Amino acid sequence: MAMSASSSSHALLRRIGGALLRRSFSASASAGSDSAAAAGYHVAGGPSYMRGAVFWEPGRPLTLEEFQMPRPKAGELLIKTKACGVCHSDLHVMKGEIPFSSPCVVGHEITGEVVDHGTHTPIEIINRLPIGSHVVGAFIMPCGNCFYCVKGQEDLCESFFAYNRAKGTLYDGETRLFLRSNGKPVYMYSMGGLAEYCVVPANALAVLPHSLPYTESAILGCAVFTAYGALRHSAEMRAGDSVAVIGVGGVGSR
Ligand SMILES: [Zn+2]
Ligand SMILES: [Zn+2]
């Protein structure tokens, strides 16, 4: 399920029972007009802060907080979030069913626009994902360098599980999210997608064709490929196969 960021409302509605989390705060409140923020960020410094939805502890509602504008490091991109899905993995964290560092920003099914590259980011990455690119992010963010990544098993990336899943950070052991008021670090569940901007390692981003809408495409990064992987690799289904489907949930119905 994906909801787009709206410029008309600042309300945050949460209905866990209906598996609905509508993110509808506005980038324009902190950044001037959307177009000015997107066009001006890279060359003029852009906004100095953003807002994001923070998970504090199980059973406590998310709160909207202001953050210092996150800064990408080498090999990372700053993405202006356009849409973010709500996956049950996020809800597991929010219910305390999956232990995770807190406070943190959940949300790991994003689409967005590239607005900056970390310094010393290789030119090949900048050429592949230039400023203004439409992108979709992946739930598992491969480092590209570990034992598993180099042999094409990015879903087992050692850095992702050792740092992001175990500590809520990126691969230098640090988060990119700090509260505006007191500088307190806030951890990242994947890229921390329920925020106006997020920092994402380049290996976790794919170009989203302009023909595909931001909102509906957000689930590509987790729900769609979870179902695809189950069908293609676990069940080894091929076109033309006859199958019996027993139970269809949120992932299966994609
Ligand atoms: Zn997910
Ligand atoms: Zn890796």
From TrEMBL:
UniProt cofactor(s): Zn(2+)
InterPro entries xrefs: ADH-like_N, GroES-like_sf
Domain Alcohol dehydrogenase-like N-terminal: 74-209
Keywords: Metal-binding, Oxidoreductase, Zinc
Keyword Metal-binding: yes
Domain of life assignment: Eukaryota
UniProt family annotation: Belongs to the zinc-containing alcohol dehydrogenase family.
Protein name (database record): Alcohol dehydrogenase-like N-terminal domain-containing protein
Species: Panicum virgatum (Blackwell switchgrass)
